[in-house]
Known about the structure:
Elements: H1 20-34, H2 38-51, H3 56-68, H4 72-85, H5 90-102, H6 106-119, H7 124-136, H8 140-153, H9 158-170, H10 174-187, H11 192-204, H12 208-221, H13 226-238, H14 242-255, H15 260-272, H16 276-292, H17 296-305, H18 309-322, H19 327-339, H20 343-356, H21 361-373, H22 377-390, H23 395-407, H24 411-423, H25 430-436
Amino acid sequence: MRVIVSLLxxxxxxxxxxxxxxxxHFNRGFAKHQAKDYKTAISEYSKxxxxxxxxxxxxxxxxxxxxxxxxxxxxxxxxxxxVSLAPTKANSYTGRGRTRHMQNDYKGAIEDYxxxxxxxxxxxxxYEDRGDxxxxxxxxxxxxxxxxxxxxxxxxxxRVYAKRGDARFQLKFYKxxxxxxxxxxxxxxxxxxxxxxxxDTRCELKDYKNAISDYGRAIGIEPKNADYFISRADxxxxxxxxxxxxxxxxxxxxxxxxxPDAYVGRGLTKDMLNDHDGAIVDYRKALNFAGAGKxxxxxxxxxxxxxDYKGAIxxxxxxxxxxxxxxKVYLMRGKTKLELNDSKTAIADFNKAIELNPKDAxxxxxxGRSKIDLKDYMGALADLDNAISLNSGDGEYYYNRGIxxxxxxxxxxxxxxxxxxxxxxxxxxxxxxxxxxx
Length: 438
């Protein structure tokens, strides 16, 4: 969120007509506010309010000052008073929305942004703010619409193009994201994040060579940013430049010695180079740093690399105790239980993942696999049907459904699924095909 002291520069209430004493306090508060002496500004605005309890300007400006000293509860209270005194002034709704946003009350923020835009629909910044709140709620499609409205009003903000690119990236609209990052870079070629984001998009488009180039540009602008080195290292790993990847992971570690991601990446690369002892050393360092930072999900991943599956399950459980609605963690914990052949409790995790996200094809597919282990073939078939309806491009889903159909004596349909799995690049058991699909 942008620092909202800039709102002070826009006068939106009538000129004050109350006592000179009230004006004096207000003006002194305003001067202190501009000098970023927010505590003194709050004191002067409070004195102005004591003299004139209906001074909307004083409540509004005091709200901004309170926001800037992180008294968010007090800021919301003052904005609410300003709204009650002057309900047709858009800026009070905007300010309250931004403060609610800072408090992670994204729905409340959106309500305020809606009211602000109803009063003044030409404010590009408020469309941007509403887009930000929608993005935080996972409503990327609506966020894209708001960023587009902001751009239609003010097409000169590289930041908004980049934000729309981020939302498109999350929805896997990679070509649209690429176009937005290009536009942002054209407008502001000195912002390293824009190159990094375009590099990420190029990776998804499998344009690894140019992705590496973009990460290099980001590094050229911010050579002390470990994340950019990790991104470039990950991409070098994908191009089999393993030595180059290790060099970049090592550079990231020099910049951020406590960054577990860099140790994990370097460890995986060492494993690829058959330096298994070196990999284990890196994994253990990563685990120490991830544990210290209470990154339970990363700790779980590292424990799996160290073949400690029960420990990984414990870490996922810790993560869910902190955030019990994290659907992907249920999925990961369920998959880990499957690796320990605990299909029954794995199903409970997949059930929860589906409850939280009914459109998660992977959760249906893994629940189907679990049901196969428990010989619930009809239940497994229903789950694989759902998985394929949600994602028809995964060969493994067709393969597993084909096996189930063959078990259920539906060979023709099962063999059709096995052939489709092969067409999608999944490695099919030729003996299974030979025995059943003549």
